[in-house]
Amino acid sequence: MISGSCLCGRVKYDITGKVGDIIHCHCRTCRKAHGAAFSSVARVDDNDFNLKGAEHLNAFESSPGKSRFFCSHCGTQVYAKRENTPFIILRLGSLDNDPQSQEKSHIWVSDKASWYDINKELPVYEEYES
């Protein structure tokens, strides 16, 4: 089973079905909401998303008809929801294990951070570089 949680652990979820393809969104709204170069997301059917601790969630309507749900204690973005859709947009940073999905694409690259290069090869470190 695929599961996830917020940083403080008050909000948790299990996914009983498939996690959709992984999309990296570079739009200005995602960058601002996550404080990062982009947001990695995937669709999950509403019926497959089992949420615990919903009383700890707050929501922000970041664009008409789309709300972002985050933990009111630690601020972790957990998912987004567009009105009248049968799925949530899972924020993959909240996962606790492998979503068993594949990366599909980068979107809104016309809006990407000027200081981030998608194709740049950089050194990789297992932990903090000292």
Automatic annotation (TrEMBL):
KW Translocase (keyword) present: no
Pfam families: GFA
InterPro entries xref list: CENP-V/GFA (IPR006913), Mss4-like_sf (IPR011057)
Organism domain of life: Bacteria
PROSITE patterns: CENP_V_GFA
Keywords recorded for this protein, A-Z: Lyase, Metal-binding, Zinc
Stretches assigned to the CENP-V/GFA domain: 2-117
GO molecular function: carbon-sulfur lyase activity; metal ion binding
Family of the protein in this entry: Belongs to the Gfa family.
Name listed for the protein in its UniProt record: Uncharacterized conserved protein
